[in-house]
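RETRY 2/3 - previous attempt timed out on the joint model. Re-submitting the same 1014-residue input unchanged.
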Amino acid sequence: VDGPIPAIDRDARSPIGLQLVEGLRRRILDGVLRPGDTVPSTRALASELGVSRSAVVAAYEQLAGEGYLDMRQGAPTRVAALILAGGPSAEGLDDGRRDETGASSARVTAGGGAGGVARAAGAGGPANAAPAPPRIDLLPGRPSTARIDTRSWRAAWRHAAALDIPSESPPPFGVPRLRAEIADHLRLARGVACAPEDVVVTAGTAEALALVASALALLVGGALRVAVEHPGYPSARRTIERRGATTIPVAVDGDGIDVEVLRRMPRPPHAVMVTPSHQYPLGGRLPVATRLELLGWARSARAVVIEDDYDSEFRHLGPPLPALASLDSDRVVLVGSFSKVLTPWLRLGYLVLPADPALRDAIAAIRADEPSPVPGTAQEAAAALLASGAVRRHIAVTRREYAHRRRLVLAALDGLPNAPLSGLDGGLHAVLELPDAATAAVVVDRLAAEGVAVASLAEYSAVPGDDGAGLVFGYAGPNDTLLAEGLERIRSAVAAAMRPREAQPTA
Amino acid sequence: VDGPIPAIDRDARSPIGLQLVEGLRRRILDGVLRPGDTVPSTRALASELGVSRSAVVAAYEQLAGEGYLDMRQGAPTRVAALILAGGPSAEGLDDGRRDETGASSARVTAGGGAGGVARAAGAGGPANAAPAPPRIDLLPGRPSTARIDTRSWRAAWRHAAALDIPSESPPPFGVPRLRAEIADHLRLARGVACAPEDVVVTAGTAEALALVASALALLVGGALRVAVEHPGYPSARRTIERRGATTIPVAVDGDGIDVEVLRRMPRPPHAVMVTPSHQYPLGGRLPVATRLELLGWARSARAVVIEDDYDSEFRHLGPPLPALASLDSDRVVLVGSFSKVLTPWLRLGYLVLPADPALRDAIAAIRADEPSPVPGTAQEAAAALLASGAVRRHIAVTRREYAHRRRLVLAALDGLPNAPLSGLDGGLHAVLELPDAATAAVVVDRLAAEGVAVASLAEYSAVPGDDGAGLVFGYAGPNDTLLAEGLERIRSAVAAAMRPREAQPTA
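RETRY 2/3 succeeded.
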């Protein structure tokens, strides 16, 4: 790297736009360009390099989408305040999360596999739960669908239903038009530059994870080992365990997965499953430097990184950071869905495959036996909905809505004594830590009795006996009134449970 | 059993209609009532038993749907000519299948499991195959969609798209209205009396089989062993192997699976997967007596019977036989789909669960982690389509259409020397046996070069080294002209391959 402005090689096989993006990204990551530095105007840089101005604009927009540049109307474009390893965000953190969560001392524990499968039988989860649904559902994962543009929604299905009805299963990797629309969506909403050919349409995140796990099991040919976050998404863990994987819990800290633990593992796993943009459930965001360390480890261990990007479209505080998939196209499988962006009712998700053809071939072999579960008509409807711009507009609308709801959460629950609130930088859920498991259980039970459904942090533990204590709750689904009531009930339940024991009435 | 007319116990907890059905069915199976016997008129029986005439009509209709009674307009209702163990059908067989297929001498071979998974990588199947699609696609499994009532189809999707958009995944076992419509469909089209609560909506047969296998693996808690038909559906085998099952091939004869082989197994499998109404691929139909033997074995071995009822709506010759699920509601899981009845494009299938709650709970636990892959909107659309009667009408239309196509197949290929045609009693595909594997390979390759896609019987082998020799081809998908050309090309290719070697031109 010779200077702040990348040189362009017109004879190279790589397109000029890509050279620009990669050159600038490299200079930012290497510290040649630093947070806050202004970059040349698009006009000046285009002139200096002798390229078209539109090429420079496109490169800047991509880097802004990836979180490297900060472009604002009427202000010079600057290098964004990236959150680097361990250090505080340039914007600061208002939620006290950083040093208080993920306090687990167990770093690596083996043998998640069989135990996990055995646990599954008793873990019915919400679908199996109470006969009467809760009055206020604050379980994490529910978006708001009240403002979906129903006119575009209906038009999209009408269009899809009017197409000829083929006499075969949908294409194994999805209907071409939908794959192209998803690639566009990822470029615009997430800064991930991928081709339609890299996209596999799935029936949501669970089916995507199951497909990747099955494909890896096929490639490994024996005992597949996958490192998972602790605490982490228990359903995701069990889903891959059901495909024959043994999961190996790796503790997360306030930022996300601890790469040092992976590095020290004498026998590296075949894959690691991470939620870098908004650790589930604790809410940490993996700094760029740690992302690069994780990818470096994956390269040396020849491991696949499964990036579960489940809610990164909603970022409330701090810039979005580049997806792992945009930093390494060889080892990362990006998994995402429209469950948060639209609704889980649609059962629509996707994988973005790495360049390496092995995984692609394995997935093709599985899809040949087990055809894509996504109805062709639903795929065509989703493509039409994306093409109409309705999804993009809905994200913009709900982003404001969820930012407002998040403020309600902060107003109601921030600063409770001994109950730090965290995980609110992005996404649709928050964590309220509590001093111990007994208190958390009392609070969850009391809330359930009052018709307010929340999850217990303990449910996310991947290491039996090392359970966190607290509540995990979503704030996107209910309307403002119900949310306000639910938050008030959380506040009261926590206050009651934390009251000194002697002050409580005895039975 | 005291006489030909069942006694009714008004104090019993079992409804009168059910007592009637069960009493009559038992008398037929026990030979008290014999094929060809007339049964009393509904009026006479109602009067004799002191029950309503409509109860008797309903009971007769159910038994007719199950294949026990033969009801014809203007003629007395008779006991149907059931195909009993090994004996020839009352209608006779016009295809020479019975003694010439399934000539395998290997009866049981262990260790399908790991080998099957390893095979999958190379078995891309049609989805992976040639870049240019075949001009005439005679691969088995494609229905005709040309005559789907597009007006009802569009109306159904329009209706579903106009409903409120929930912010959660569809219910784990499916949208209630669709479960009720599927239960109705099964009663009318298949004589299976089940409640909506017994139905699980799935994304086609593969997802249904995967779900059952995962649930059984959860229940068994260790190494799940599943007996499968040999030859049989290779994708189904690999699908359940990917859920951790070891498959144990059991040879089929002209009728279907050989129950004696199951009986002699020193360590019975946890489950057996069968295609009793139209063995895939050979086309046998399991006689009622053998069905009862299979169920008797399953009871004593405490095994689950997975009944893959993939094309039983289309029966061309001989009465439909009762589904295993209608003979034993405790041990049988019925698996079916709308892939043949409508189109695989819809990705819609179902399970009918046995009364035993264990499997139900295990499936609920899995669905809690991995939500139903079937979009809520697609489920509502399918329910509306079924409710409109369009599916029932479409089955009637295509039944005539396929019967006609079947006659084209018989006209073109029946009676070829050393190449018996079989499997044509029902469904949408046929088998043309050939003297040896080399001949079959030559024919398949020549047809592929001419743009005609057919499957090789060898692909269905579950026992390496014990491959059948022949072609498996579908006749429902292409129109009459293309089908006629495809059949003529099969005839020529077979004739050329069977010509004495000396008569062939040498290179």
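The longest helix of chain A spans residues 390-413. Closing ticket.
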